[in-house]
Design goal:
The protein is α+β, with helices and mostly antiparallel strands. The protein has three helices and 22 strands.
Length: about 375
């Protein structure tokens, strides 16, 4: 009876071992393979940086307003339109100013006629004085007559001078009226792009009330606020790493200007950073300047190895058997085509490069030729 029981136990154990081998073989057989390029995480020396948030601006930006009061008749541009310097952007009602300009021109004409009459009188008085001087030499006129003729000549010269002054004043008034009439044409101060339109036909324009906003054409600037404790690390002309969500290709810029006075409220300095030309950049976008303050060691991986699954940043890392594991990682700052891995991956691990939308978790990765 004992022999029978021992035999049964032995048979059961043999069956269990056989079953385990069969399950293990089935598991090994079930592992699928996939081809992919592999990269490796590495320990690298990276600069210690301080983030300085900012906004993208045009190098020149201005709000255009009217210089005279008037009703808006036409607005000739829209947002996004390219304009050239001096181009008419809006037209105001000029009926009142045109009437004033015509009156000023009429005043110039009247003053010119008065000047001509005064000039004739002055010429006549001068010729009369010349004849009396000749008669005085011949002792043919009395001193009183000579004084009267001389005084009349002087009065004629004074009237001519006054008439000339009136002509100059009338011309100046006419020029002022013409200039005011010209202000009814609102013009672009420089070549650029219309970025805002704040008025439509029928609106009442007056000095200081914005009508349009014009940004200069060309590369933009990131205007970042750098804390006063870090401003000593920034120098004009130095390269600064950048992070702009809407334009990942833009990774650095050059410091163009450091405003010498700090903002008393935030205790920060405004730093203007020239950006390279990139069609993805738009004024008003948010960006961050990464001001280098030293160096440190960090785990780096190619940015192309990072994938987004749901709301998590992940990497496919290979275990000792070459099986891909999907790991959630915490990302740090980017440095060119490399990005810092704060957690989730160690230095020296093999990673799947450019996995795309493929689900590689649990698959054995074969190096793509």
């Amino acid at each position: 009876m004992k022999i029978l029981i021992s035999g049964c136990l032995l048979a059961a154990a043999s069956a269990l071992v056989a079953g385990c081998h069969t399950a293990e073989n089935a598991t090994q057989t079930a592992v699928q393979s996939a081809q992919a390029r592999l990269v490796e995480s590495q320990m690298a020396t990276v600069p210690t940086t301080v983030s300085a948030p900012g906004t993208l601006h045009a190098k020149e930006s201005t709000t255009v307003s009217a210089q005279v009061m008037g009703r808006v008749v036409q607005v000739l541009v829209h947002e996004g339109d390219a304009v050239r310097a001096g181009q008419t952007l809006a037209v105001l009602d000029d009926s009142t100013l045109r009437s004033g300009e015509q009156q000023a021109q009429a005043a110039v004409l009247a003053a010119t006629h008065e000047q001509a009459a005064a000039q004739t009188q002055a010429a006549l008085a001068a010729s009369t004085l010349a004849r009396y001087k000749q008669l005085q030499v011949e002792k043919s006129v009395s001193p009183q007559e000579m004084d009267e003729v001389s005084r009349r000549a002087q009065a004629a010269e004074a009237q001519l001078a006054a008439a000339r002054a009136q002509v100059q004043a009338a011309k100046a008034q006419a020029a002022s009226a013409a200039a005011m009439l010209g202000y009814t044409r609102v013009r672009a101060p420089f070549s650029g792009v219309i970025t805002a339109r704040m008025a439509d036909p029928g609106a009442l324009a007056s000095p200081g009330v914005p009508l349009l906003q014009v940004d200069s054409a060309g590369p933009l600037q990131l205007q970042a606020a750098v804390d006063e404790t870090q401003i000593a690390s920034v120098r004009r002309g130095m390269k600064i790493a950048l992070s702009i969500d809407g334009a990942p290709a833009v990774t650095s810029g050059a410091v163009a200007e450091i405003v010498p006075a700090a903002d008393p409220a935030s205790h920060s300095f405004l730093v203007k950073i020239d950006l390279p030309h990139d069609s993805a950049l738009r004024a008003g976008m948010y960006g961050t300047a990464l001001v280098a303050t030293g160096q440190r060691q960090a785990i780096m991986a190619p940015r192309s190895a990072v994938v987004v699954r749901g709301s998590l940043n992940c990497l496919y890392a290979l275990d000792s058997n070459g099986i891909a594991q999907l790991r959630a990682v915490t990302l740090g700052s980017a440095h060119g085509d490399q990005i810092e891995i704060l957690s989730g991956v160690s230095a020296g691990e093999k990673l799947v490069d450019q996995p795309g939308d493929r689900d590689l978790a649990g698959k054995r990765i074969e190096v793509q030729p």
